């Protein structure tokens, strides 16, 4: 994981700001839905007490799937839900009343296409007549759609087998499918059992931006926006805490996800992490306001998802993004 001097200065400023926050403002309670993946800023903030430092009482609630998070967010049983921008945006076209408020990172470098042992791939068009799996409706599903469109392969020429990630690993290992789009740590598990990675999402220009969504009503309240700003500052400060001492974060990751420190470190090093200032930058994949940021990703999602029938109509587009809390946090 590499940080620019500008990012380092931003993180340092967040750390300095933490001290007086609790003394001046009352704590805000937040129910935060997370997935069991090594989200370094989250677990660093938890391990180092940074949420408390920034005046937010975070209750971490574990989920193992996006749809379960969508339901809890809609019901108001969680305030923040962590996951992929693409997945939450597509859910919003189906009625999920949510806003996207913070980008945590880009996991494209730990997302890839693997083939079953003995298979080869010169072009994505070679998958015609073969089978491929990915979690249905996920960013990995969209990666498949995008690659097929770019190679001018009709969707019905490839047998798409929708499987949740653990079952996808088993399917590729057992030769039940010819190819699979996977995330880490499942990517490494598949490779260790004979699968061969032939595409890396980052290397072919794709983005797997993940972050935080909140209920549309909650973020309209002053307390909701303030809570998101505080969480955002704590996540940014967590990056520096990890850089200075990764041990507590790695221990927290193992405790809450089961992922061992060596693999967690590898995933963290290959993930591009975002700070609060990235959210309001003009030329940045993480920008909630700039033309090259999250709005451009949403346009990409709309195009692919509509073409593949994953959504029936376009959603709110850039209006799905709510930069107000990030703007507060960056000041």
UniProtKB/TrEMBL annotation:
Cleaved signal peptide residues: 1-23
Entry-linked InterPro entries: Solute-binding_3/MltF_N, SsuA/THI5
Keywords: Signal
Protein name listed in UniProt: ABC-type nitrate/sulfonate/bicarbonate transport system substrate-binding protein
Record bears the keyword Transmembrane helix: no
Family recorded in the similarity comment: Belongs to the bacterial solute-binding protein SsuA/TauA family.
CDD domains for the chain: PBP2_NrtA_SsuA_CpmA_like
Superkingdom of the organism of origin: Bacteria
Record-annotated Solute-binding protein family 3/N-terminal domain positions: 34-246
Alphabetized PANTHER family for the sequence: ALIPHATIC SULFONATES-BINDING PROTEIN-RELATED
Gene3D superfamilies the record matches: Periplasmic binding protein-like II
Pfam family, one: NMT1
């Amino acid at each position: 994981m590499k940080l620019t001097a500008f990012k380092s200065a931003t993180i340092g400023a967040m750390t300095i700001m933490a001290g007086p926050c609790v003394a001046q403002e009352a704590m805000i309670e937040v129910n935060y839905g997370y997935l069991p993946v090594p989200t370094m800023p989250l677990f660093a903030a938890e391990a180092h007490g940074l949420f408390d430092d920034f005046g937010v009482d975070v209750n971490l609630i574990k989920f193992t799937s996006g749809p379960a998070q969508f339901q809890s967010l809609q019901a108001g049983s969680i305030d923040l839900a962590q996951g992929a921008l693409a997945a939450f945006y597509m859910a919003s076209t189906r009625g999920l009343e949510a806003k996207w408020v913070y980008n945590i990172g880009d996991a494209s470098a730990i997302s890839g296409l693997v083939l079953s042992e003995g298979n080869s791939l010169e072009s994505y068009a070679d998958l015609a007549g073969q089978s491929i799996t990915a979690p249905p409706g996920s960013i990995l599903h969209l990666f498949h759609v995008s690659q097929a469109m770019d190679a001018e392969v009709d969707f019905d020429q490839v047998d798409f087998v929708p499987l949740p990630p653990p079952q996808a690993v088993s399917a590729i290992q057992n030769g039940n499918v010819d190819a699979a789009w996977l995330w880490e740590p499942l990517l490494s598990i598949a490779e260790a059992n004979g699968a061969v990675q032939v595409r890396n999402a980052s290397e072919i220009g794709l983005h797997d931006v993940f972050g935080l969504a909140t209920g549309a009503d909650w973020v309209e309240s002053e307390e909701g926006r303030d809570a998101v700003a505080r969480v955002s500052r704590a996540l940014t400060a967590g990056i520096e805490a990890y850089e200075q001492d990764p041990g507590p974060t790695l221990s927290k990751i193992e405790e809450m996800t089961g992922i061992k420190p060596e693999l967690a470190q590898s995933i963290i090093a290959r993930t591009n992490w975002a700070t609060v200032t990235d959210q309001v930058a003009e030329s940045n994949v993480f920008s909630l306001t700039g033309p090259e940021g999250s709005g451009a990703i949403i346009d990409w999602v709309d195009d692919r998802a509509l073409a593949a029938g994953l959504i029936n109509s376009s959603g709110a587009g850039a209006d799905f993004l709510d930069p107000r809390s990030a703007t507060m946090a960056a000041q």
